[in-house]
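Please, structure for the following, as tokens.
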Amino acid sequence: MSDGRARVLIAGGGTGGHLTPALVVAATIRELAPAVEPVLVGATRGLEARLLPRKEFRFHLLPLEPIYRRQWWRNVRWPFVVPRLLRALDAVFRAERPRAVLGTGGYASAPVVWAALRRGLPAAIQEQNAWPGLANRFLARRVREVYLGAPEAEARLALGARTTAIYTGNPIRPPDPARRDAARRAFGLEAGRRVLLVTGGSQGALPINRAVAAWLDRGPVPDDLDVLWVTGHGTHAEFAPRHRPPRVQVIPYLDPMADAYAVADLVVSRAGMLTVAELCAWGLPAILVPLPTAAADHQAHNARALAADGAAVLLPQAELDADRLAREVTGLLADAARREALAARARARGRPAAAREIATRFLALAGLGNLT
């Protein structure tokens, strides 16, 4: 297996919000230091089990289970999981002999970082959200570095005496505004018309989709507005009959989202922190509708942080309906100065070079900075 390259482990997954940062940082490490091999670690039951086989990195999947906070009785499986997990972790560390470990959050992250710490290896974590997750709150006092996606997170972490927290922003693919003209052609959009992007994340958001559907059905919709509506795969069939390009384009999924961001004048979105990081990097005015069932209500904390900073509009899902959505959208479209103010504050929070900074710092932590 050995090809002479030094290796680092990047652990995270369960959801796209934890897996995507791991993939972006891994790709950046490979660009900066070809002599270093990033190896991904995730869970057999996470999203990564489907996605990692299609990626270009070697990976390991561990027999991990989430910790259930509301349905606590489901944690009864953990006494049976732990022995298998410990054996699997030992096999990974013996096979890879990593120089350092980075955790990007989620239940796939904490056991790998913990195992690294037990072995005396340098370890770091990356926290995407303004309200840190359970795994990262546990690890923050033990690791050497914490890479913050939002500055508000630092006050909510109990850092150790040897732990340094750095506000890097979240690792995303840097924006490329130059693709705007090509993207408009790809979507068949006419010049001079404004574009509203609606997205509920990779899984879609049924309440947002139904509010958009009711608004489009009842109106009024500005005559010069085109809508790019990313529904998610699960509910696309319900809303596909409203697909009337180029005015309304109902799309199940976009990956990457860069073309949609490049053409958007206004965005309605969930408030996952990677989406928020992309909106800020692109400098896009946004109406954020947080997922109320997100773990520890972290999407609401993300949206409140941006709204308090004047970088987005917060629209709680409990207040979302067709009329409220129409008022917010049409009000912002009619107020260019407010849109620009939101965009400017978002842009000020943007960290488009976050992946490079995280990768550079982590390589230095691993003692591999001389290879960049």
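The mean pLDDT is 92. The two ends are 23 Å apart (CA to CA).
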